[in-house]
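In this section we turn from sequence analysis to structure. A common task in structural bioinformatics is to predict how a protein folds when a small molecule is present, because the ligand can shape the pocket around it. The inputs are simple: the amino acid sequence and a SMILES string for the ligand, here pyridoxal-5'-phosphate. Study the lines below before reading on.
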Amino acid sequence: MRNVEGIEFISNENARKKDHTKSPVEFISREAVEKVRNFHKTFPEYQLTPLHSLDELSKKLGVSSIWVKDESFRFGLNAFKVLGGSYAVGNYLAEVLNVDISELSFEKLRSKEIKEKLGEITFVTATDGNHGRGIAWAARQLGQKAVVFMPKGSSAIRLNNIKKEGAEASITDFNYDDAVRLANKYAEEHNGVIVQDSAWEGYEKIPTWIMQGYATLIDEAIEQIKDQGKDKPTHVFLQAGVGSFAGSVQGYLAAVFGEDRPVTAIVEPDEAACIYKSVKAGDGKPHAVTGFMPTIMAGLACGEPSTVAWGILRDYADIYISCPDYVTARGMRILGNPLAGDPKVISGESGAVGLGILSLILQDSSLKEISKKLNINKDSRILVISTEGDTDPEGYREIVWEGMCPSA
Ligand SMILES: Cc1ncc(COP(=O)(O)O)c(C=O)c1O
């Protein structure tokens, strides 16, 4: 027996309607993203992350292709997040230096001459782990300081990985959204620079850079698919916390492919489904989920949608799915135990939910309505993004070895 309890969805009947009042996506056009990728390419650690083709799984599930973009290989940090943090920090420094980021390589930014010009800067942020590690990494590489606040219940391993990058880091008594407010206050009081991966009214410039930074990964994936001699995906599954990641990819797809863009599904943990809740409210405004958000998907345990991402997800995404933890646990197990001939992918709790829900949609007839809405069929070419590896290795083994969050 398969468990499909607790999965809910809402489809967006306006996603494909032409409407000039839709949120602008030009900031994430191919041209804008080219500039981002050029900056990332100046990092010695830069290389394409793998795009795995799960041919056996796609045969078993009855679709043409399933690709997994594997962000566990990103800059040796086990998650995609550094793409956003590094680009935002780079842009911030470019602004201080009064130059365009295209004139700045990573090497130049870490030069003695530039460091002397910049003086000491403290970057401050709140994080479930991945974003803070990316900021700590970028700050250290550039000879600057980072202060990182984590929500209550954060993993000690994730905390230590941030400390290992030289940051001052601590686990607070707050949920994610209150930890963000604490970080903001700390930055104001200590003359620091808040580099947050979520936007709110009056704080949009840096989160917009972060979203642009994330787009390197979808730009790579589209190029990698083309290099395999295949057409672009017909469907893309995107997991959301505050929605910056999903909004970035969604914005890119809308800007680059227009009406011809892939069908997108936004996937969230049911305990922190703030995008789903906002869509359901039906007034076009973002709505928060408050309190403690008990989900194994720590990276997605965010209750307040980013104001920049929200408009894009509201206007262009095709379906919004809220699902319990067993869905991502299933995705982690499938990816870690592939069919013979398929590559193995180590995907963490926040990384595997796209594949988890896809597998259930295709295998369980009670979810037929979702696949019908998405128009998934034997010709579908589906992209999911594993945004992290086993960033909490003990938690990973609890699920994959010990069977925590069973499917049945
Ligand atoms: C691994 C992973 N995937 C996805 C996300 C979701 O990103 P966002 O909060 O921008 O929606 C996060 C956020 O921290 C994450 O760590």
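The mean pLDDT is 95. As an exercise, try to locate the residues that line the pyridoxal-5'-phosphate site and compare them with your own expectations.
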